[in-house]
Amino acid sequence: MTEPILSINQLYTSFRVDGETIPAVEGIDLSLYPGEIVGLVGESGSGKSVTSLSVMQLLDETPGEVTGGEVLFQGKDLLKFTDRQKRKVRGNDISMIFQEPMTSLNPVLKIGKQLIEAIREHQRISQTEARKHAVHMLNQVGIPRSEEIMNEYPHQLSGGMRQRVMIAMAMSCDPKVLIADEPTTALDVTIQAQILDVMRNMRKEHNTSILFITHDLGVIAEMCDRVAVMYSGRIVEQGTVYEIFENPKHPYTKGLLGSIPKLGAKEDRLDSIQGQVPTVEDRPKGCKFANRCPFVMDHCWEEEPPLFDGENRCWLHEREEA
Amino acid sequence: MKEPLLQVDGLKKHFVSQKGFRKSSKQVVKAVDGVSFDIKPGETFGLVGESGCGKSTTGRMIMQMLEATEGTITFDGQRMDQLSGKELKKARKDFQMIFQDPYASLNPRMTVRDIIAEPLIVHEMETANGIDARVYELLDTVGLPRKVAERYPHEFSGGQRQRIGIARALAVRPKLIIADEPVSALDVSIQSQVLNLLKDLQDEFDLTYLFIAHDLSVVDFISDRIGVMYLGKLVEIGDRESIIQNPQHPYTRALLSAVPVPDPRAKRERIVLEGDLPSPSNPPSGCPFHTRCPFAWDRCASETPQLQTAETTGHTAACHLLDEL
After folding, report:
1. Looking at beta carbons, which residues of chain A come within 8 Å of B281?
2. CB B318 within 8 A of CB B307
3. Looking at this predicted complex, what is its ipTM?
4. Inter-chain CB pairs, A–B, below 8 Å
5. For the segment A188-247, what is each residue's pLDDT rounded down to a tens digit?
6. Closest A-chain CA to B51
7. B217 shares contact with chain A (CB less than 8 Å)
8. CA-based angle B223:B198:A279, to the nearest 5?
9. Which of B218, B182, B189 is nearest to A261 (CA)?
10. pTM given for the model
11. Which residues of B229-241 are buried (b: 16+ CB within 10 A; e: fewer)?
């Protein structure tokens, strides 16, 4: 068995607001193996984006702080790195793409300049070579007239093109890990299909491991090898994409799958999950899903279930095992 | 055969933007360019398309929030453009809208009671005493506890706000509800609750829906008939099942094939479209889709195809290769 390239162990992240500490991520364990695409799925407020920001250590500008756990990249704890070491890893070994490409590109710099800057930050090559490499990357992500685009500004490009530029930038130093936080959510479906193709090719050609964060279960089913489902700052279930979609164990995963309308299914009603995600203050004491769970038992309110078999957090499965 | 509740005929909206020194150069954006369809009472018509296709502009013209450049809208037998201001106000009671953004569409300074009561007051539908009872009734209908009446919108989540917006739309007992992306800002578990609610309300109050959305799975779930828009034009229109199972227009096919399916074993022929949506200010000649269409030939660039009935399926599509693909 190969070693995971990235492993998140018992990660805790919380936010300090008005003197109060609000836990956003509470004890996450997740591994990413070389060449693997792992999906992190959950609804708003489940902590999936905070998880990715914690791994990239991009919380400095926010009131957030990693309060416990470790993030091992090739066996070394990223959380203990100095700023200098972090800069070296970020963009070079681990890259990230965000949902809104417009806010992640500098609006006053030409595309080419931004790409070259990113490349030369990590590679000791000349301006000319970096430019050549940048054009090559733009071609790789399927951007037509790449030479011209190098001299254009972000606002001159469409959303799909900007996201391609972001992917080109993220991939320019051939990272081992790519963290993609809702990379296609802002895009139309036909453009989304193009971007997903680009990402699949990147994985095939460079063996990049991808942590794919999204709320869209359809995208997860198409892209991922393994899936982790988050709810209220925890991973409530994880498994291979087949296990999760064909034999979901946690009632939340089941509810989520029942909630999405399926194309051509001629359903009359959707199985929805009652109620709504509790706010941090209102999270139940025991299982965080207890107030919405159709199978809730007395025990669920009292004690939070551990991760049974390392794959699902539900007391129902303890009974099965016993 | 029932008379249609809403008839839209040759609807166009051209936005003119003037640029340059002394606004010398004019640019015309053909946001909606000749759209016709009708909706029968009790039916749900889904209008689907990608951003910039003109689906929201169409909805806004029907709502009389935007004036049409050309074409007519007939609601319940009345030509909307021929109504006086007073008559229009009266007619507005019969068509209401649900908006996409549940954060921007509720006045943050009004309580839930005032938000839901406002249309009742504007249309003078209830006495002062009757208003409270009606507000409570509406809260019950959309599944919100009565005690929320005194609260303000910021205290609610997106799904709850959308329920408030629905209660407001239902207040004046409309015949037609235009819902513009009502669930796209919501999480999936909340989205399914709101979709189920919309279906229940339709049965309970005999509502007719114009449902505008970009998500084909959602449109498939809720609609009886579907119209597919591309660059300001309807390219295909027909019964839901026929459109979804047997799409005729190459754009509809590409759109359907691009929808991610929540089944890891699904094997599908993906038609990946080349390039981006052309700008509506400079639309391609002939068929608007020919720049991205995998089947385009000479005629497509020169001649705009009209909507025709396909022999194989009985629904209509605008393509020169209809029945040949």
Report:
1. none
2. yes
3. 0.85
4. 127
5. 888 888 889 889 988 999 999 999 999 999 999 999 999 999 999 999 999 999 999 999
6. A188
7. yes
8. 125
9. B218
10. 0.89
11. bbbbbbbbbbbbb
